Amino acid sequence: MRVTALDNHFEVEYTLIAPAHYGGTMSADFPGRGKVAILQTSPETVLEDYGRLMELAGVREALPQDKETLLKINISWQTWYPACSTAPWQLEGVIQALQTAGYENLIGAHNNTVVVDAYVGEKNNKHKYVVDKHGLRNVHLYEPEYKWVRYEPKQPFLVLDRIYPEGVYIPEILIGRNIVQLPTVKTHVFTTITGAMKNAFGGLLGTRRHWTHSVIHETLVDLLMIQQDIHPGLFAVMDGTFAGDGPGPRAMRWQEKDVILASADQVAIDAISAHLQGFDPLSIPFIRTAHEMGLGVGDPEEIEIVGQDRDWVMGQNWHFVQEDTFASRGQKLIYHGWLHPLEPLLLRTPLVPWSYFASNFYHNVYWYPFVGRKRVEAALKTKWGRMFSEYGSEAGLRGAVMPGMEPETVTIAAAGLGLLTLALGAGAWWLWRRHRSS
Questions:
Q1: Is the same domain home to 432 and 333?
Q2: 22-26, 105-109, 334-338, 418-422: the lowest-pLDDT one
Q3: Is residue 307 within 8 Å of residue 56, measured between CB atoms?
Q4: Can you state the angle between helices 88-100 and 46-56, rounded to 10 degrees?
Q5: Does any domain span residue 370?
Q6: Do 110 and 187 have their domain in common?
Q7: 330 shares its domain with 412
Q8: 4 domain residue, yes or no
Q9: How far apart are CA 238 and CA 50, in angstroms?
Q10: What does the CA dihedral 151, 175, 87, 47 come to, rounded to 10 degrees?
Q11: Rounded to an integer, what distance in angstroms lies between the CA atom of residue 421 and that of residue 403?
Q12: How many domains does the chain have?
C-alpha cells in the first residue's frame, strides 16, 4: 500500500502492522478500537463524569491492571491559558477514576521543550497540586536520572530513521508501562488539530523533536507505531471544557464547549475531536495515514460513539479554523518555503537558539501581555475559569498566575536590538566615509 504525504511531496511505503515487540500487547483489533466515549459535562459533575466516561470507553479492558500506568500530562505553555494544557480537573478526574478501578501504581509524566519550562508549567497549570494531592510519583523524563535508550523498530519507519540517522532514542521508563494521554481539544499551526497522537510527540522524543516539523504528520504515525509496540495498554482522555480555535496550541481563541472524550483508539479520538471542531478528519494527513495503516479508525462513519447520542455528535460543527501566528509563518518558511534549504543551518547548528528566542519573544513578550492576558481575564469570569481559579485554593493557589513580559527575554531582545543598532550605525558610518573619500 502507498500513500503520498501531501505536505512534503514525497512517497512512503507502509504496510498493515500489529506491533508486539517491546512487551506491548497491542494488535490490530485491540480492545476499544474504533470506539469513542463523549459526554457533556459541568463544573459540578466533571470529576464524576470523567469516571463514567472512562468506563464507557472501556478503560479496564484497555489497560492491564498489573502494569504501572503513566499519565502523560500536556504542557503547551508554562502559563495557564484556556484549552492550552491538561486541565487540573481532567488530571484529577482521570486519577480518581483509575484509582477507583483498582489501578494503584500511577505516575505523572512530563517532558520538556526548548520553549516551555515544565517545572513552572506544572505549577501554574496546577498539575503539581493535583499529583501531590493524590500521592502520585511525578517524573520529568528529561532529567539525568531517566535513561533514554535506542528504539529498534519492528517495522520500517515512515520518516524517523531519516530524521535521526544515528537512531531514535526514547525514555526507558515508558517501555512496558501503560500510558494515558491527556490532551485538550484544540487546533495547531502545524497539524490542524492536536490531540492524543500529538501528545505522544511531547513524551517520546527529546529536545530535538523540532527537527521533525517538516514531516510532522508522518512523525506522529511513527510515534503511534512506537506506542503500540512499547506499551501494554494505551488510553486517551481529552478535555473540551474549554476548546481552542485558531493558531494553536497557544495563541488561540478559547470557547466553552463543555465536552470530554475518552478512547483506547488514539486515531479515533483525534478524528472525533477534528469532526467536532469542523474539520474533515480524513483530510488531516496524520489521521488519514494512521487510518489507512490500520493503526486505528479515522473515519467517523466507522467509529462507534457511546455516551452522547451519535446524531448529536455528528451534527456538531464548531467552525474552528487553523491559522498561523507571525512566529509560525516564519517557521513554515523554513520547513516548507523558500528558506527550506537553510533548515539544517538554522535549526541544527549552534545558531538554533535564535528560533527559541523568537518564539519566546513573540508569545511571552508580545502576544500574552498585549493579547492573551485580556483573554485570560475574560476566561476567569466563566464557569470553567472560576473553577480553575478555585482549584487548590485550600493550598494557597487561588487565582491564576498571569505574568507580564519575561525580564530575561526582554533583556536579551534589548541587547540584540542594541547590537543591531550599532551594526547598522557602523555600516552607515563606513558607507559615509567611503562616499566622502571617493
A1: no
A2: 418-422
A3: yes
A4: 60
A5: no
A6: yes
A7: no
A8: no
A9: 10
A10: 150
A11: 29
A12: 2
pLDDT-derived band at 213, boundaries 50, 70, 90: confident
**Euclidean distance between CA atoms 421 and 417, whole angstroms:** 6
What is the Cα gyration radius of the chain?
A: 22
More confident: 295 or 11: 295
- Taking residues 35-53, what's their average pLDDT? 98
Q: Say how far apart CA 313 and CA 38 lie, in whole Å.
A: 8
pLDDT > 70: what percent of the chain? 83
Whether residue 432 sits in one domain with residue 316: no
Count, in order, helices (H) and strands (E) of the chain.
Answer: 17, 14
Question: Does the pLDDT of residue 13 top 80, yes or no?
Answer: no
Shared-domain flag, residues 285 and 423: no
DSSP string across 256-275: EEEEEEEES-HHHHHHHHHH
Output the pLDDT for position 18. 41
Torsion from C-alpha of 347, 351, 352, 356, nearest 10 degrees: -140
Nearest residue to 204 (alpha-carbon basis) of 237, 185, 181: 181
Mean pLDDT of all residues in 191-216: 89
Q: For the full predicted model, state whether its pTM sits above 0.85.
A: yes
Which pLDDT score is estimated for 424? Answer: 47
Task: Give the cell for residue 428.
Answer: 552607515
**What cell numbers appear for 43 in the block?**
463544573
Cis-peptide, bond into residue 344, ω within 30° of zero: no
- pLDDT tops 50 at residue 224: yes
Mean pLDDT, to the nearest integer, of 73-96?
96
Question: What's the mean per-residue pLDDT of the chain?
Answer: 87
- State CA 396 to chain mean position distance: 29
Residue partners of 45: CB distance under 8 A and separation at least 6: none
Q: Which residues contact 40 (CB under 8 A, 6 or more apart)?
A: 258, 259, 308
pLDDT confidence bin for 363, thresholds 50/70/90: confident
Question: Nearest to residue 75, comparing CAs of 146, 141, 172?
Answer: 141
CB atoms closer than 10 angstroms to residue 223: 26
| Pair (99, 221) in one structural domain | yes
Sign (positive/negative) of CA torsion 223, 229, 232, 235?
Answer: positive
Structural contact between residues 118 and 139, judged by C-beta atoms closer than 8 angstroms: no
Q: Mind spelling out the 3-state secondary structure of 45-72? A: CHHHHHHHHHHHCCHHHHCCCCCCEEEE
Q: What is the mean pLDDT of residues 391-414?
A: 75
Tell me the longest C-alpha to C-alpha distance in the chain: 86
Please give the Cα distance from 407 to 46 (Å, whole number).
38
